[in-house]
Amino acid sequence: VLELIVISTLNGVLYGMLLFLMASGLTVIFSMLGVLNFAHASFYMLGAFFGFQISRWFGFWPALLVAPLLAGLIGAAVERYGLRHVHKNGHVAELLFTFGLAFVIEEAVQIIWGKSPVDYRVPRLLDFPAFTIFSTNYPAFKIFMLLVSVAIFLALLIALKMTRVGLIVQAALTHPRMVGHLGHNVDRIFMMVFGIGTALAAVAGVIAGPALQTQSNMAELLGPILFVVVVIGGLGSLPGAFIASLLIGLVQTFAVSMNGSLASIFGPLGPGNKQPLLVDIWNVTIAQIAPIIPYLLMVVILLFRPKGLLGTRES
Amino acid sequence: MSNLSKVTVLPHSVSSSNLRFYGLWTATAIALLALPYVFSSGGSLTTLSLIGISIIFSLSYNILLGQTGMLSFGHAVYYGLGGFAAIHGMNLIARSKLPVSLPLVPLIGGISGLVFAATLGWVPTRRSGTAFAMISLGVAELIASSSLILRSFFGGEAGISANRTKLMRVFEWNFGPQIQIYYLVAVWTLLAVIAMYALTRTPFGRMCNAVRDNPERVQFVGYDPHVIRFLAFCFAGFFAGIAGALAAINFEIANAAYLGAAQSGVVLFATYIGGAGFFIGPIIGAIFVTYLSLALSDLTAVWQLYFGLFFIAIVMFAPGGIAGLLMKHLPLVRAGTLVTVLRAYLVALVPTLTMIAGFILAIEIVVQHTVNADEYPHTKAFGVHFNTANPLIWLLAAALVIGGFVIARCTWKWVGKAWDEALIAAREKGFHA
To answer: Does the model's ipTM exceed the 0.90 cut?
Structure first.
C-alpha cells in the first residue's frame, strides 16, 4: 500500500504539473484577453506532434526547443490575424472562433499524421529506470518531465514577480483596461501572451507525448479536463489554477490505481437488489469512474463556491 | 397610456398581420405535406426526416444561445437522454402491450429531457457567459462518461435498440416505411416550431431576451436572472428531448454518440451558421448543415475540415450567420438600391472563388500525399480528376491562392464602398436596417 501511495503521489504531482503548464497559459490568456481559448489543448496536441516529427528528423533535444517555438508562432498568428479580427463581435464570437479552430486543428492533424497513435519514443538518453522503490522501476523520463515542468513553473513565477513584463501582465490580470490607459501597446502584449501561453501548452505536449499516447484525439480527451481545472480554481486566478491542477492530478491518479467498488467494500452486506442499473453502480470500480471524477469534483465545488476555489470574477 | 395607444392603433394591423401569420403556417404545413411527392426516393425521405429532427434540435438550442445568450457546449446531453428514454419507452410499451402508439413516444423523450435539464441545469445556470459555457461542457462530459459506465441503461458502446413497428397502430400505420416516419417527424417539427415561436412571444420569452442583453437591469425590475436562465434551460431540454426521441425512432437505436461532444458541436454549428439572432436562423442552419454534411461527405474525404473552416469563416466575416447576412440586405431591397451592391458582389465573387478553389486544391494535394501516399497519384475531389505528382499543380494552387487573395482584397474594398453608398441611399428614402 505504501508503494502505491508513493508512486501515485509522484505520478499525480507530475500529471498536476503538466496540467498547470497548460492551465497557466489558459488563465493568463483568459485574464488579459477575456477569451477562454477553447483550442488550448489543441496547441498541446500540436506540440506533441511537432515534437514527434522534429525528433524523428533531428532528435529529441532540438524538438524540445523548436516545437514549442513553432506552436507559439502559430498561436501568435492566430491571435494577430484571427482573434483580433473577431474581437469586435464579442466574447461569444471569440470563444466560438477558438472552438472552430480546435475542430480544424484536430482534422488537420488527422489528415497529416492519421488517426492511429504515432510512435513517439522516449529519447535514448533518458530511457532507463531512475530508481527502484518497492520493486517498481520509476522511469527517468518521468523525472525529467517533472523537472522541466517545475523549472518552467519557477521561471514563470520569477518572470511574473520580478520582471517589468511580469508586472504588466499581473496588472492586466485584475485591471486590463487600466494597463491600456497607461500607454502600453496592449495589442502587442496580447499577441505575445497568446503566443507564450500556447508555447507553454506545446512544451507540455512535447514532454508528455512520449509518456502518454500521441494521437489525434489527445486534445479532445484533455481539453474538457483543462477547463474543469480552470473553473475549479476560479476563472482568471493563477494560484487557483495551480491548486486545482495538483488536486485533479492527484485525485485522478489515485483513483486510477484503486480497484475497490461499493460491492467489494460492503461485500455480502450489500442490499440484495437485482435492479440492473443499481447492480451497475454497485459493481463499478473506482478506477472505472476515474474519468468522471474531475467533473463530479467540479459540480460539487460549484455547488458550494460558485466562483471556484480562489475566483473573484463572475465571468 | 400605452394601453390606449395599442387599442387605437392595432385593430386594422392585427387582422392583416394575423392573416399573414396563419397563412405562413398553413403554407408551411402544405409544403411539408407535399414534399414527399417532389422528393420521393427513400434516401431523400431519410434526409428530409433528418432535417426535421435537426430543425427541432437547433431551435431548442437557440432558446439558449439566441434568446437567452447562453453558449452551451453540452446540449446534446438532453437530446441523447431523450433518445434513450424513447428507446426504453418503446421497448417497455411493446413488452407490456400498453395502449400507446408511436406518435406519442417523442413526448416521452421531451419529458425526460425536461426532467434531466431541470436536475442538471440548476448549477450551471447560476453563471452566465464564459463560465456557463465551461460548466455546461463539464456536465456534458460527466454524463457522456457515465453513459459508458452505466451499461444496463445505455448499453455500452453498442447502444440499445428497439422495434418501432411493435407498438399499437393508428390508422393502420405501423410506421415501418420511411414515408410514415417522415410524416411523423414533419408533424412534430411543425408543432415544435410553432410552440417555440409562441414561446418567444410570451412575457417569459421577452424576459429571456432581457437577461441576454442586460441581466443587471433584470434584477432591478425584480426578476432573478438565474431563475429565468434555468427555465430557459428546461424548455431547451424539453425540445431537445423531443428531437432526440425522433432521432431514436428514425434509427431505432440510441448509443453514446447521441449525447457526445460531437453532437453538441454539430448543433452549435448549425445554429450559429444559420444565425442565432433570428428565429428563422436555426431552421436555415439545420437545413444547410444537414444537407451539406450529407452532400460533402460524398465529394471529398476531408469534408469535416472544410466544415470547420466554413464555420470559422462565418464567425469571422458574418457573425449574424446566414439569416443575419440576408436580413442586412432587407433595407436595400425595400429601397431598391440593391442592384449596385449585387453588381459589386458579382465582381468580387470571381477572385474570391478563385482563392477558395486554390485553397481546396492545396488541401486536396496534401491529403493525397499524406492519407493515401502509396496509391496512384491521380486523385478525384469534387468530381475533378488531377495528378498530384505533377509539380505544376502545386504552382497552380499557390498562384490561385495568392492571386485570388490580392485581387479579392481590392474588390471587397470596392464592395464595401458600394454597400455604404447603397445604405446611405436607402436611409435617405427612409428605410432603416
So the answer is: no
